Amino acid sequence: MTWCGDATKLLKACNYGDCLQLLSKAERGMPRLSQDAEFCLMRAQSRAALGILPDCVLQDLEVVAEKRPWSLEYSYFHEVRGSAQAQSGDRGGLAEMDVGSRIGSEHSRVLRDRAREALEWFDNVQRDGLRLQQAPDHLLENRKLVLEAVQSNGRALQYAAEDLRRDKEVVLAAVQQEPTSLEFADPSIRKDRYVASGGATLLITLFHKKASGGHLQAIRCVGIGGDDLAEISPDEGCDIAWFRATLAERLETMPCGLKLLSAEGRLLEDGELLSDLFLSTGSDALARGLVEKISTGAGLVEKALAIFKSWDTDETGTISSDELSRALLSIDPSLDEETIDAMFVSADLNVDGIISYEEFVAWAFGSSNSKPAVVEVTIGAREEVKAVAKSKSIAAKKPKRRSSSPASRSSK
Fold first, then answer.
1. Is 0.70 surpassed by the pTM of this model?
2. What kind and span of H or E run contains 202?
3. Cα gap 304→371, rounded to integer Å
4. DSSP 8-state class, residue 239
5. Are 46 and 20 in contact (CB under 8 A)?
6. Torsion of CA 168, 171, 172, 174, to 10 degrees
7. For 160-181, what is each residue's pLDDT tens digit?
């Protein structure tokens, strides 16, 4: 283990860059060194002194504490950990360094300088994220510092290290603060729907496909407007968490950006087994598959309004049974007349023979057991629907459906 003696000499000489290169070369030859306490401590000391990857420093120190718990008694362990904590934005790191302070040590001075430098830059980017541009190069690799910067100003992403511009969490934070900052992300990240939309959730309805023997053969994933996003054949015993991760990989997005629904519209939880799910097309199943992104406020209303208008082909401000039938058949041609009629009845809450905008929102976004929250924020959209109808000089809605019962006809 010649690397150990050479690394020790380099550390004593405070030659941290060469020491880190030596350790990296040794690890390439012996990957198991990543779990060696002495190796991890030396790498942690080098990284902390260079001011890079404080999160990795803390991970290395966790290995040291596990493999060599008596290291906690030594001052240099606390100095390195305190410096890394401070470089992660934790001011308590300076107090941690005081626990193991060795006055007069050149190594201690370097670690303390790096800690104070990082804390100063955390203050700077919290005030203005674009100050990241002036930060030293090694701090542009500091993930937590970059996260602070992009949360203050998303366009600070352009100054981050290349690896962090491929980090989905960092890019997502930037896009949420400033949507135009997506242009600074790595091209591979721009394809991620969840990140590119700033965290809008993709809602996907699952439909089963059974083999001749009746067992689950594949699961069809349907997005907005009935778009087939993927078809996945699960292994026996797989659960929703596995399916979500597999689908996210197929769609090149983050698992947390996917919400999965059964065909009946029930939100599926990670612990559920795919083999236990009863996936069949119910009267409200496709209503749940109509909406691709779930957000709050105006974004949801805008999405609902766009779908409503696309279905209201004659622009009367309402949806007729014929319009609903055409829309649903374009999503799933296998639907029969009885199912479509049941869906119309489910949506036509006041039984007037047409579906108003509020009824459409309640049907597609809410549930039969509770008032959908989105209805309370649809007043502006409803007025827009009415304005479209008025501009086409359509003064009246379509006639109500007549009851087919003799009693009803005789009463008239």
1. no
2. strand 201-210
3. 16
4. B
5. yes
6. 160
7. 999 999 998 999 999 989 989 9
